[in-house]
Amino acid sequence: YPNPVSEYINIKNVEDAIELKIIDMNGNEMIRLSTIEIVAPIHLQNLRPGEFFLKYQMEEGKVGVVKFIKF
Questions:
Q1: How far apart are CA 31 and CA 62, in angstroms?
Q2: pLDDT at residue 57, rounded to an integer
Q3: Phi, psi values for residue 20, rounded to 5°
Q4: In this model, does residue 15 exceed pLDDT 90?
Q5: Three-class SS string for 3-67?
Q6: Which of 10, 30, 40, 71 sits between 20 and 30 A of 56, alpha carbons compared?
Q7: What is the spatial distance between Cα 43 and Cα 6, in angstroms, rounded to a whole number?
Q8: pLDDT reported for residue 20
Q9: pLDDT in tens, 21-47
C-alpha cells in the first residue's frame, strides 16, 4: 500500500521475505532485492510511471504477486 504509488510502497511482513522483484508489464525486472536489502518502505522514485507487478518469495516458499500503479 498505497496503490497507486508515487514515491514508495509499503509491504506487510516484509521481514519474512527472502526475495522481492518489481517487474514491468513487459516482463522486465526493474528492481530485485534480497533478504538483507528489503526494508519498508521500498522507494520507487527512479521507477517511471506505469503498471508493475511486485513479486515476493517468503522463507517458507510461498510466492505472491501484487499489481500496482506508479504515477
A1: 20
A2: 92
A3: -140, 135
A4: no
A5: CCECCEECCCCHHHEEEEEEEECCCCEEEEEEHHHCCCCEECCCCCCEEEEEEEEECCCCEEEEE
A6: 71
A7: 9
A8: 92
A9: 999 999 999 999 987 777 778 899 999
